[in-house]
Amino acid sequence: MDIYNHNQTEAPVALSLYELNSLVAEAISIGVPGQYWVEAEISEAREVRGHCYLELVEKDDRSNTPVARASAKCWQNRWSIIRPMFERVTGQRLHAGMKVMLRVYANFHEAYGFSWIVSDINPEYTLGDLARRRKEIVERLKADGVFDLQRELLLPMFAQRIAVVSSEGAAGFGDFCRQLHDNAGGYQFDVRLFPAVMQGEAVERSVVEALNAIYEVQEQYDCVVIIRGGGATSDLSGFDTLALAENVANFPLPIITGIGHDRDETVLDLVAFAHVKTPTAAAQLLVDHLSQTAALADRLCQRVVLAARRRMEMEQGRLRSLASRIPVLFSLVGEKETGRLDRLTARINSSLALTFSAQRQHLDRLAASVRDQTLRRITAEQHRLEMLERRVEAENPERLLKRGYSITTYKGRTVRDASQLPPDAEVETRVENGSFRSRVVK
Predict the structure, then answer these.
(1) What are the CA-CA distances from residue 277 to residues 146, 154, 212, 237, 264 (Å)?
(2) Are residues 92 and 40 in the same domain?
(3) Last residue of one domain, picked from the residues 106, 131, 156
(4) Full residue range of the structural domain in which residue 80 is found
(5) In CATH, what number is assigned to the domain containing residue 111?
(6) Would you write out the chain's pLDDT as a tens digit for each of its 442 residues?
(7) Is 19 exposed, middle or buried (0-12, 13-18, 19+ CB in 10 A)?
(8) Which of 155, 156, 187 is nearest to 287 (CA)?
(9) CA–CA gap between residue 366 and residue 55 (Å, rounded)
(10) CA–CA gap between residue 264 and residue 220 (Å, rounded)
(11) d(CA 371, CA 359)
(12) Phi and psi angles of residue 181, each rounded to the nearest 5 degrees, phi first
């Protein structure tokens, strides 16, 4: 069908936009029949009124540059079935960056344009991709030599100062605190929360920021606990990132994780000092550790008491033995010490006499030396004074006057520059014999 008449003899025949889109829809339904399985990466995923809207992308393996893009939709009636199954199998929600295998069919709507309609998702494909990515991160950490750094740390025996990374006001944090507070041993813990986002795409950045804040005051804490404050097990993707794993692996304090999942371990769990399933279990781990420390202290205390008791019994026997020997020993010791005191007295007297004689000689030498130095200093100062007198005499203005020079003053100050004198200024000129006054004429 011609859409324009070049002869301009009659008006062009045009289709309405709806008619044109209907032709496209019919062509697509005929040319792209049936359903297809497609592999793609999600660049955006969102839910609106129960429907799921996806933006798909395929990237070049070498340059990571997108080579294909498409929009896809999964309607509510189908999404309500697919989503629970997918999240139950993978433990993940659909999110940006996830690789998926979708079963789709082409759809062109006259009002909304073209999109692929999702009828099914293969969770096993995503599981394989997640496992591959997790394996790559673990291998990278092992190659860098940081994978086991946390397990080389020691949890302090009295680990009671706890830094917690969790979402503020979350139920999980409350459970953690109650478990610590209500422990059977009555142990006291000092807990401080460093708030962080614990689900969604902001997990990595938020948790790293919280760890950085703890690092600045690390000397105030014995360990760090990372717990999720509730949320679905499908929100764990943020804990499977290289940047977060590297931060945890290199952290100087032991880190315990309890992010509330039963199916798989995240990379964060693998590099942590210890990991448990829930915030309550993390608190119980700390309580048990302190309980073990208390039990060890009790055992050591009992050993100290027994050792002290045995030592006291041994010393009591020794004292009784010594008490029976004291009368005899006292007589012998008294005589021995009396003779020793007499010898020490004689040595002290002799030493004092020698010391006094030596000091007297030293004082005599010092007196002679001071006398000689004083005479030399007086002579030198007398010579210096004579030189100063000669210099003063050489600078005496009277000598200059006797040689024919004069000194002119204005208001008591010597005149050095005639141009500085005001007109009619009265100046005084002093010569060898007397002085006279004169007035400046300009």
Answers:
(1) 23, 21, 24, 16, 10
(2) yes
(3) 131
(4) 17-131
(5) 2.40.50.140
(6) 445 455 556 667 888 888 888 888 888 878 888 899 999 988 899 999 999 999 999 888 777 788 899 999 999 999 999 999 988 887 778 888 888 999 999 888 888 888 899 999 998 887 777 778 888 888 898 998 999 999 999 999 999 999 999 988 778 888 999 999 999 888 999 999 999 988 777 888 999 999 999 999 999 999 999 998 655 554 667 788 888 999 999 999 999 998 866 555 788 899 999 999 889 999 999 999 999 998 898 899 889 988 888 898 888 888 888 777 777 767 777 778 888 888 988 899 888 888 888 888 888 888 888 888 888 889 889 988 988 888 877 777 777 777 778 888 888 888 888 888 888 888 888 887 888 888 887 6
(7) exposed
(8) 187
(9) 102
(10) 33
(11) 18
(12) -70, -35
Q: What pairs with residue 44 in β-bridges? A: 55
The amino acid sitting at 397 is P
Q: What is the C-alpha separation between 364 and 362, in angstroms, rounded?
A: 5
- Where helices occur in 103-202 by DSSP H, the ranges are 123-143, 171-181
Name the token pair of 142: 């092992």
Residue 238 exposed, middle or buried by CB count within 10 Å (0-12, 13-18, 19+): buried
Which residue, among 124, 112, 31, 18, has the nearest Cα to 72 in the 3D structure? 112
- Do 293 and 158 touch, CB atoms closer than 8 A? yes
Q: 11: which 2 tokens?
A: 């008006």
Q: How many residues does the chain have?
A: 442
Query: What is the C-alpha separation between 385 and 279, in angstroms, rounded?
Result: 93
Q: Which amino acid, residue 85?
A: M
Strands ordered across the beta sheet of 223-227: 190-195, 161-166, 223-227, 255-258, 274-276
Considering the domain architecture, whether residues 205 and 124 belong to the same structural domain is answered as: no
H/E element, 69: strand 66-74
